[in-house]
């Protein structure tokens, strides 16, 4: 079910990306563009997939830290298979936040031209960000994490970083019977 939902979601993801008109690039010829056909990883083969992979990795890292802060072992999850070195619980907690945080940061970085096609380099079949592109993406990601939202359960305004912690603490309450 999750795979089918992801496939349907990513079939329409390209519709969220603003495209430049041909010939509007101010920095010469461009090898890359932000055309997105499908999700691919290990290695990402286009700039959008490279950004998505980076965003998911950073979000998983943030949730691993949250798990430790709450007192969870991030490697013992519910849905993701346990594998050496993979924080299964962080990945479980990450699922509802992928579009809200990671995908949104990617779209903001592209659509606000924080990251441009010139910020990428090809290495074999894969595409990676150059250092300046990484810095720009991290700015977009941190802006998203600092954005204030109204918590749906408690009704007060809080940034996404705190929402991640609240979600982990709510899980802890369920597990302890509170």
Concise summary:
This protein has 178 residues and is mainly alpha-helical. It has 6 helices and 4 strands; from the N terminus they run ααααββαββα.
Overall 3D geometry? globular
Strand order of the largest sheet: 1-2
- Counted by DSSP, the helix tally is 6
The SS-based structural class is: mainly alpha
Please describe the biggest sheet, giving its number of strands, its sense, and whether it closes into a barrel.
Answer: 2 strands, antiparallel
Strand content: 5-15%
Helical proportion, percent range: 40-55%
The H/E string reads HHHHEEHEEH
Topology readout:
Layout: H1 2-11, H2 47-70, H3 88-94, H4 98-111, E1 120-123, E2 126-129, H5 131-146, E3 148-150, E4 157-159, H6 160-175
Helix pairs in contact: 2-3, 2-4, 2-6, 4-5
Give an overview of the whole structure.
The protein has helices at residues 2-11, 47-70, 88-94, 98-111, 131-146, 160-175, and strands at 120-123, 126-129, 148-150, 157-159. The protein is mainly α. The strands form two sheets. It has a two-stranded antiparallel ribbon. A two-stranded antiparallel sheet has the order 3-4. Strand 3 and strand 4 form a beta hairpin. Helix 2 (47-70) packs across helix 3, helix 2 (47-70) crosses helix 6 and helix 4 crosses helix 5.
